[in-house]
Amino acid sequence: MRTVQAVRFGGPEVLVPSEAPEPVPGAGQVLVDVAVVGITFVETQIRRGVDQWHPRPELPYIPGGMVAGRVIAVGDGVDPGWIGRSVLADAGSTGAFAERVAADAQSLIPVPDGLGLREAAALHSDGSTATGLVEGARIAPGQWVLVEAAAGGLGSLLVQLARSAGARVIGIARGERKLDLVRDLGAEAAIDYSAPDWTEQVLRVTGGAGVDIVFDGVGGEIGRAAFELTARHGRFSVHGASSGRLTVIEPEEAQRRGVEVIGVEQLFGFRARMRPWAEQVMAQAVAGRVRPVVGQTFPLERAADAHAAIEGRSALGKTLLLV
After folding, report:
1. What are the two backbone dihedrals, phi and then psi, of residue 252, each rounded to the nearest 5 degrees?
2. Mind listing the pLDDT tens digit for each residue in 65-116?
3. Nearest Cα to 82, choosing from 105, 66, 99, 59?
4. What is the rounded CA–CA span in Å between residue 44 and residue 62?
5. Domains in the chain: how many in total?
6. Residues 44 and 132 in one domain
7. Are 202 and 214 in contact (CB under 8 A)?
8. Which residues contact 255 (CB under 8 A, 6 or more apart)?
9. Is it the case that residue 302 has pLDDT exceeding 80?
10. What is the CATH number of the domain that holds 168?
C-alpha cells in the first residue's frame, strides 16, 4: 500500500513516499479506500517537531488525521450497510497519508448527496472549527468582524459564516490574489497585512471605531496589532498561531480595555461537537450558502510539496492530497 512517511522531524523534505502493509479493520472499525486527504497547518508544525499541543509521534510516522473516501470493508460489530458509502473518516492523530485507512465506525460522517469528496474534505476540520468559533464569538448583525488569514482554508469559511450571521467583515491577507478571493467571498473590505498602515486602514473602514470581533489565527505581531483594534465590549477570539507565536493577552489588560478574550483553549472543547458541526456546514454547502475553497491539490506522492505550499504562505484556501 502506498503511503507517505515522515522519516524525521524537520522541513517538508522529511516526507518520503513509502510502502506499508494493508490495514485490517478491527472490531468496531471500517476500511476506507481513500480518495482525498485533508491537511491542516498544525500538521506541518507537528512534522517540524515544534507543535506544543499534541503528543509528538514516534518516528517514522504517517502524517494526517482526516480522509474522505469509500468504505470497502467492515470489522466485527459494524453494520455492513456502510460498505460502498462515501464518508469522512478520522484516522486518528496519524495515519491518513495512505491509500487505505482503518477508522473507527463511530468517527464516520456520511457525505451528503450533492457534495463531492474534495469539497467534503475541505469542509470537515476547517468547517467544523469555523462553525464553533463563530458560535463562541456570538456575532450580532451589523457588527464589524476582522478575520486574519482570511484567504486560507479556515479563514475563508470564517468570512462566509460571519457574513451569514449578518456581520460586516474585514478580511486581512497577503497579496492581491488572496485579497481578490476575500472580496469574492463577501468581505466588505480586504486589506493586505504586509502594508505598514494596515491597522490604520482597518480604522478608516470602521470610521475609527475599531472592530467588534477578531478571529486571530496568526498570532505574533499581527495578532497583537489586531487586539489593539478591538473596540470596547468587543471579543478577541484566538484559534491559532501560524506566525509561530500565540497572541497572549494578560487578563488585567483585557479588563482594562474592556475586551473579552476567548483563548485558544476553547478548541479543547470542540472535539465532542465536531461531528454535528461538520454535518451542519456540509448541509450549508449543499444549499449553496457556504463555498469551500479548494485552492490547490497534490498527488499523495507530492505531500512534501503540499506542506511546502502551506508553510510558504502561497496556498489559497484549502490544500488537499489526492490519492
Report:
1. -65, -40
2. 999 999 999 999 999 999 999 999 998 889 999 999 999 999 999 999 999 9
3. 105
4. 13
5. 2
6. no
7. no
8. none
9. yes
10. 3.40.50.720
**DSSP classification of residue 243:** T
Burial class (CB in 10 A: 0-12, 13-18, 19+), 104: middle
pLDDT of 314 above 80: no
91 and 157 fall within a common domain? no
Give yes or no for a contact between 28 and 77, defined as CB atoms under 8 angstroms apart: yes
Instruction: State the DSSP H helix or E strand holding residue 160, giving kind and residue range, or none if neither.
Output: helix 153-164
Residue 250 lies in a domain: yes
In this model, does residue 315 exceed pLDDT 90? no
Instruction: Please tell me whether residues 130 and 264 are part of one structural domain.
Output: yes
Tens-place pLDDT, residues 193-219: 999 999 999 999 999 999 999 999 999
In a domain, 240, yes or no: yes
Provide the domain limits for residue 242.
126-269
Q: What Rg do the C-alpha atoms of the chain give, in angstroms?
A: 20
Q: What does 195-207 look like in DSSP terms, one character per residue?
A: STTHHHHHHHHTT
Is the entire prediction scored with pTM above 0.85? Answer: yes
306, 233: one domain: no
Question: Hey, how many other C-beta atoms are within 10 angstroms of the C-beta on 200?
Answer: 12
Residue 234: band (very low, low, confident or very high) from pLDDT cuts 50, 70, 90: very high
Average pLDDT over residues 170-190: 97
